Amino acid sequence: MTMEELVGNRLVFGIPGARITPDIIQHFKDTHCGGLILYRINFESPDQTRKLISDWKTPWSGDCWFAWTMKAAGWSCSGRA
Q: For residue 32, is it left (φ>0), alpha (ψ between -120 and 50) or beta?
C-alpha cells in the first residue's frame, strides 16, 4: 500500500446532500477515503437512506466504513459496508 493510500484510508468524509453522484464516488476513489459519515442533511426517508447507502457501497470491492449521526434524535451508529 502506498503512503497516499495509507493516509487516505484514515479519512472519513461527509457528503453535501441526500444523493450519491458519480463525482462523489470519484472523490472517494481519488483520495482513497476510508469512510463516509452521514448527517441529518443526508436523510430524507428510510427508503432514500437505504438507497444512498447501497449506491455508496456498490462501487467498492474492499472494506469501507460508514457512520451516521442524528444528534437531535440522540443516537448514532457505525459499521462496515
A: left
| Integer Cα distance of 17 and 24 in angstroms | 11
Q: What is the distance between the alpha carbons of residues 61 and 49, in angstroms, rounded to a whole number?
A: 21
Q: How far apart are the first and last CA of the chain?
A: 21
Q: What predicted TM-score, i.e. pTM, was given to this entire model? A: 0.70
3-state secondary structure at position 60: coil
* Residue at grid coordinates 448514532: 76
CA gap 26, 32 in Å, rounded: 10
Q: Which amino acid is at 32?
A: H
In degrees, to the nearest 5, what angle opens at C-alpha 45 toward C-alphas 44 and 46?
140
What confidence score (pLDDT) does residue 69 get? 53
